Amino acid sequence: MKLTDYEALSFDCYGTLIDWEAGIAAVLNPWAARRGLSLDAEQLLTAYSAHEATAEVEHPADLYPDILARSIRALGVELGAEVSDADAAALANSVPDWPAFEDSHDALSALGKHFELIILSNVDRTSFAGSNARLGVEFSSVITAQDVGSYKPSARNFDALASETRRLGIGQGKLLHVAQSLFHDHVPAKRVGLPTVWINRRHDRPGWGATPAPPAEVTPDWQFPSMAGFAAAVDAE
User: Fold this and answer.
1) By percentage, how much of the chain surpasses pLDDT 90?
2) CATH 3.40.50.720 fits 20-97, yes or no
3) pTM for the complete prediction?
4) Which of 12, 19, 87, 185 is catalytic?
């Protein structure tokens, strides 16, 4: 199929549209400096990623700010560094401050001329509202972990996406999932038969950053280094 054969796009938000690594690092870096830790931003993000994934599995009903607080506290235990209540609150409350990627608004605006736009995100409604103000785009539907009661890569989140797609009247096989994270999105999306677009924001950097490595081999149907590149490919078709 061509990109323009689809009727709707579902998006991961954080890592794809919002620069969550910059947002998390803006809290972790000064915390680490205050505690005398010598890890750089990339090392901190990599260490942090495992704790967030664990917190989401063990506490699926927690709101995302609570997941963030649990994760930095667990990181502190691993590194032998104090995490004060203020440190935990700084990360928990930081999501609305996380910057949008420079190309997100324009790309979403262009894509919205051709497709219904849906969000499938691992956050809570309040946190996403802050991010959506930065994106400046109206979505046809927003599905958060708060709505589902679990976090991606749980299949429950993709079941919720399928239900919402049917409610919106999107034709069978006409949904394309767009995301950066192979771990959170592409592996589980492929398991339920969704075609995917990989926005490989880390294409010029090694490692996985704030996202755990994928647990299985996965091959997205399309790959672009940016949302701008994806939108341009749709326009070209």
Assistant:
1) 98
2) no
3) 0.96
4) 12
